[in-house]
């Protein structure tokens, strides 16, 4: 029925439900979005929104530090490199869990890494990798054809995020995917996340293309509109600028 409403009426109807909300004592952020999201397949993802979501749902052996943009440990708490640069040992954290509660094993990550090596889109990303072995229950070892001192950077890329060996939408990131449809994508926080936990407990993407029609003054250049305030104040909200 919502699809039958004019864009302006739809925005007025949905606006009180967007932004920061408390739902059943759960801090939730609702974000209107201008297009359906593509499936989150392992490996290359073309859309920026999909790349961002992959970074929230999945983790890699390494990740980029937000301040320095240098690779630091993620699933691996640290790594060591041989003097000739041909062997890299990644030591895994001991308390890792998938979103479904399963303990993360080195064999799980090994299996997914081998699958990534077979993807044509990632040929150049891992061209230096000769083989990967589980050399200890808590250690993954990369053997290289030639020294590649960018390997930790490559493993921090969203392309290198690792998923559950049996369930491709289950990861180890700060949020777990609980709903993925053409109309709604919902993420909920992962209670056993191995790093700092997010303040939000849930994030929802409401897929509402009519809200971004040109006549409403919005565009896909900055598709998210979030209004925070008391419900009785929302009727007085008006757009003052369309700039970024």
From TrEMBL:
<protein>
    <submittedName>
        <fullName>SgrR family transcriptional regulator</fullName>
    </submittedName>
</protein>
<feature type="domain" description="Solute-binding protein family 5">
    <location>
        <begin position="71"/>
        <end position="209"/>
    </location>
</feature>
<dbReference type="GO" id="GO:0015833">
    <property type="term" value="P:peptide transport"/>
</dbReference>
<dbReference type="GO" id="GO:1904680">
    <property type="term" value="F:peptide transmembrane transporter activity"/>
</dbReference>
<dbReference type="InterPro" id="IPR000914">
    <property type="entry name" value="SBP_5_dom"/>
</dbReference>
<dbReference type="Pfam" id="PF00496">
    <property type="entry name" value="SBP_bac_5"/>
</dbReference>
<dbReference type="InterPro" id="IPR039424">
    <property type="entry name" value="SBP_5"/>
</dbReference>
